[in-house]
Amino acid sequence: MAAIRNVILDDRLLIEELLVGIDAKGERHTTTYWYYRACRAAVSGAGGHLSGPFLGLDDQRQATAIRSLLLLPDTIGLPEPRATVPVMAELSERHPRLNLLNLEAAAAGLVLNATMLLSIEATRGVLPEILDAEKVRWRTVEIA
User: What is the rounded CA–CA span in Å between residue 124 and residue 118?
Assistant: First the structure.
């Protein structure tokens, strides 16, 4: 089995990676949409499954965690839109009902030849079916 070179983290796993780290091999990436959702959750703190992890931190650690998310470290890549947008357009022809989040995720997986790491919440939608249809590798990562 070949070593995993690139992995893409969904929004929840991106937060987990920045707060405590996750056990995954490969260069880490996320999508612009997932990065936006993670930042929005951190800033607004509505208490949902994305912002929940920030609420359990003391004020100092919470501020540090939010700052680290808003200033995404260079260790987390963002796919180049010039490469992903044309692939998103092609995917939308094959899967016309996909929303922007899923189009971008599938396109990033294809462009980066990456393994998509999905939280349990992300596996409950249509994304796994689309990833399978497009032959993008994916696996579920449970968060404690």
Answer: 10
Q: What sections of 71-116 are H helices per DSSP?
A: 81-94, 100-112
Residues 92 and 98 sit within 8 Å (Cβ to Cβ): yes
Interval 10-19: pLDDT, tens: 999 998 898 8
The b-or-e profile of 101-111 (16+ CB within 10 A means b, else e) is bbbbbbbbbbb
pLDDT at residue 129 above 70? yes
Amino acid at 66: I
Express each pLDDT in 27-76 by its tens digit.
Answer: 999 999 999 998 888 777 644 555 556 666 777 777 777 777 788 889 99
Return the CATH superfamily for domain 6-140: 5'-nuclease (3.40.50.1010)
Question: At residue 48, what are phi and psi to the nearest 5 degrees?
Answer: -75, -170
The pair of structure tokens assigned to 68 is 């680290």
Say which DSSP state 57 is in. Answer: S
Domain boundaries, the chain: 6-140
Question: For the chain, what is the mean pLDDT?
Answer: 88
Which SS3 state, helix, strand or coil, does residue 6 take?
A: strand
